[in-house]
Amino acid sequence: MTRLPDIASLQLLVLVGEQGSLTAAAAGVGMTQPAASKRINALERRFGFRLLDRSRRGSVLTAEGTLVCGWAGRVLDELAVLTDGVQALQRQRTAQLTVAASLTVAEHLLPAWLGEFRRTSPELHIGLDVMNSRRVCEVVRRGTADLGFIESPGELDGLHSRTVAHDRLVLVVAPGHRFARRRHRPVGPQELAGTRLVHREPGSGTRDTAELAAAHHGVELVAPLLELGSSSAVRSAVLAGAGPALVSELVVGADLLSGDLIEIRTEDLELRRELRAVWRQAAHPTGPAADLLAHALRHSGRRRELRAEAPPESVP
To answer: Hey, which CATH number is domain 7-92, 1.10.10.10, 3.20.20.70, 1.10.357.10, 2.60.40.420?
Structure first.
């Protein structure tokens, strides 16, 4: 015997043994009686012995047929285990989602998006990598992450993107800093470029936005006073009085309300930015990545509605 019997023929043989009728077995597998008889005949020729005793009262397994039927049943059971296992692996594979996010998005926006998403997809395993925007783009291009969230401006070679939120950088100082005494006199591009700031590292969206805003006026930021690896570290340094910094409003909003930090107005500087989801391949993400993006967009829409409903701030 050089070829394995086909699965449909084995299923047919097992059904004949269970029901004692070739006609009933054929109906059970969606086959005509002549076609079923032809399959059993083919099995008998391949094996070299009869599997069924046929009579007007039905079809009965021969002694050899009974043995083969038992073995076939075990094969079909193991095949079911194989099929179920493969389907489980497929479900597990499609249930994985790897997300890469910049620090500001990861700390201040993504927790709400993921929390809402997990309530609708509790079985989904989500892996999150937090890094600066430049690295996010790199891992998404390599396919290491299914979806990324960045805060960097500019073109994104090889990636598709969608704006999911808006943010702005604010110039902040501790109350004791000399800038705090001139908070109503704005800082322009030239003065900002000549001021040593507490900065994020190169490649971060915050740093890129600040440098682009200065470059728009033909100036370049001087070397930083401090260069730190997270927005939280920058915030802490400013609170400690290290110096001024351009920081996301998301990061220091509560400090501005409490008076722990002072916002210094800027002039002629474009410090607003779009926070974007990025992905490669198709024009639109698919599967769990598409679902997470939809949650982010809905959440962002609610934030805009709340801001629109909020009463205008009084200006002293």
So the answer is: 1.10.10.10
